[in-house]
């Protein structure tokens, strides 16, 4: 009985608030005009191989079959639960670009170098952050804007390290941007 109570308490502490946050996130997206950071779907491993080439997917960590299914599910959920996605920008990394295309289709997906992983280079990271902040500040569309990128980029922007396939909804403010919602797809 004691173990059951412990498991129940952990469930209530971790799962129920997450579900509430996810529902609040969908409520924001139903209104449209939101900016969403989306982490690429499941791509097993960490980092990229030493022979990494941005132009060659065979040299990168890529989506698994589970990741492809996850990306399609993300797109289906956006179609069913949110206002139209007006534009999608994606990192050029194959796992991010494939997530974007599987979820939202090729028609509205464009690559944006500033969404590429910026772990190694502080100067490039600062430039990328400024480019993304400018894009966010200038966005005034009626539909939602989705930025498919990497957990470390989102952490640098808002101080939250999301999981694969997680969405962080942000809004501009006088200091840059702040988080206004989250959606956990898993």
TrEMBL record:
<dbReference type="Pfam" id="PF00300">
    <property type="entry name" value="His_Phos_1"/>
</dbReference>
<dbReference type="InterPro" id="IPR029033">
    <property type="entry name" value="His_PPase_superfam"/>
</dbReference>
<keyword id="KW-0732">Signal</keyword>
<protein>
    <submittedName>
        <fullName>Histidine phosphatase family protein</fullName>
    </submittedName>
</protein>
<dbReference type="InterPro" id="IPR013078">
    <property type="entry name" value="His_Pase_superF_clade-1"/>
</dbReference>
<feature type="signal peptide">
    <location>
        <begin position="1"/>
        <end position="21"/>
    </location>
</feature>
